[in-house]
């Protein structure tokens, strides 16, 4: 019962994260059309979220000493890397192509689990990823305006690799030697990401007066500060918090597939709020993404095989505690050895045996 409840809660958090991340484009597009540079919008998003999370960073300042590599990796990959590479790629290739390549991340996560962590991956999880990516191709209409630009494709692939870093690093920091509170990791990741993006975006050249005006949203004037507030508080702070905790409750593989729903959510919100209508292939593709996500998250893993798991990432997995508290620890090494912790939920062991499974 406990494992089932934890899984349901994790799935709910993953869906909330997908909705929050998926709504960022709907709020950002009117700001960009009002005259703000896309990179300036990204910088405002990350810097604003970092400012909101500053008290949390101060509370968990010991992480700078205990987990410097984790914080640096999360800031560079999960925050700055995903944003910068994605916006660089869409300057050279169609947005749909860049988005599809970025959301190859769930498949790359499975590759990480299978070949780096050397954990078994169920056929159902692999099928779920294939369906989700195929459905996503229909949602973003990858066949529209496809132009081959090797450098642009490489930039989009770099964004996908950074997305993998987000899911893998979100699962770290909950080991026996020193647990890392997920809120602390997010706070320092945003701070580091803001510093990196400051160099890339150069916000000192931004037209700040635009933030005091309004932006057009399908014929309606919306205050720019309100859109920016949505991007900072909902599409960044809430999205990262729910996303990281969901990865710890589920797994990188499952959370990665659910994150593919971001494209579906973004498309639906753009339809409702921006007047960008869906056509039949997009509707069918959205249904396929949902089916793929459901198959991946509901698959029954195989039993754990005995033997060591290589790599530090495979060394530990964690049950996530409520936001703001340290997570309880479950040793994957013990599970791989065939033993069970007396206080550990047998259902959780079964979930972990498939390896770890989508802004």
Oligomer: single chain
User: How far apart lie the N and C ends?
Assistant: 31 Å
Overall 3D form:
globular
Rg, alpha carbons:
20 Å
The sequence of SSEs as H and E is HHHHHHHHHHHEEHHHHEEHH
The major beta sheet can be summarized as:
2 strands, antiparallel
* Amount of beta strand: under 5%
Please tell me the overall pLDDT.
74
Estimate percent helicity: 55-70%
Structural class: mainly alpha
**Order of strands across the main sheet:** 1-2
Count of discrete alpha- or pi-helical segments spanning 4 or more residues:
17
Low-confidence stretches: 300-359
Protein traits:
359 residues; mainly alpha; two-stranded antiparallel ribbon; disordered C terminus; globular; 17 helices; two-stranded antiparallel sheet
Structure report:
By secondary structure, the protein is mostly helical. The relative contact order is 0.21. Helix 1 (2-22) packs antiparallel against helix 12 (224-249) and helix 3 runs antiparallel to helix 6 (68-89). The longest helix is centred in the middle third of the chain and has 26 residues, at 224-249. The strands form two sheets. A two-stranded antiparallel sheet has the order 1-2. 65% of the residues lie in helices and 4% in strands. Residues 300-359 have low confidence and may be disordered. Strand 3 and strand 4 form a beta hairpin. It has helices at 2-22, 24-33, 38-52, 54-59, 63-66, 68-89, 95-102, 105-116, 123-139, 150-170, 182-201, 224-249, 252-258, 261-274, 280-298, 332-336, 346-352; strands spanning 214-217, 220-223, 317-319, 328-330.
């Amino acid at each position: 019962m406990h494992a089932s409840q934890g899984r349901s809660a994790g799935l709910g958090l993953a869906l909330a994260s997908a909705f929050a991340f998926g709504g960022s484009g709907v709020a950002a597009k009117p700001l960009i059309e009002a005259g703000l540079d896309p990179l300036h919008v990204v910088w405002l998003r990350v810097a604003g979220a970092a400012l909101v999370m500053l008290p949390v960073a101060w509370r968990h300042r010991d992480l700078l000493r205990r987990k410097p590599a984790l914080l640096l990796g999360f800031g560079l990959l999960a925050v700055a890397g995903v944003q910068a590479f994605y916006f660089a790629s869409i300057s050279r290739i169609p947005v749909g192509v860049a988005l599809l390549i970025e959301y190859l991340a769930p498949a790359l996560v499975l590759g990480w689990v299978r070949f780096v962590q050397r954990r078994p991956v169920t056929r159902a999880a692999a099928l779920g990823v294939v369906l989700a990516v195929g459905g996503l191709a229909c949602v973003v209409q990858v066949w529209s305006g496809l132009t081959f630009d090797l450098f642009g494709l490489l930039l989009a692939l770099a964004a996908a690799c950074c997305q993998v870093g987000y899911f893998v690093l979100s699962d770290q920091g909950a080991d026996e030697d020193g647990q890392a509170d997920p809120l602390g990791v997010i706070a320092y990741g945003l701070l580091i990401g803001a510093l990196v993006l400051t160099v890339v975006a150069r916000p000192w050249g931004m037209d700040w007066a635009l933030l005091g005006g309004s932006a057009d949203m399908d014929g309606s004037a919306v205050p720019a500060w309100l859109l920016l507030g949505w991007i900072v508080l909902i599409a960044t702070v809430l999205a990262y918090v729910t996303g990281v905790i969901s990865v710890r409750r589920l797994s990188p593989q499952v959370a990665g597939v659910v994150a593919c729903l971001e494209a579906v959510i973004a498309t639906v919100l753009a339809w409702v709020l921006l007047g960008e209508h869906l056509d039949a292939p997009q509707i069918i593709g959205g249904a396929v993404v949902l089916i793929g996500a459901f198959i991946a998250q509901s698959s029954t893993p195989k039993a754990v095989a005995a033997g060591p798991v290589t790599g530090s990432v495979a060394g530990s997995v964690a049950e996530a505690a409520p936001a703001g508290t340290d997570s309880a620890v479950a040793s994957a090494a013990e599970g791989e050895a065939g033993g069970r912790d007396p206080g550990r939920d047998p259902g959780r062991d079964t979930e972990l045996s498939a390896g770890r499974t989508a802004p």
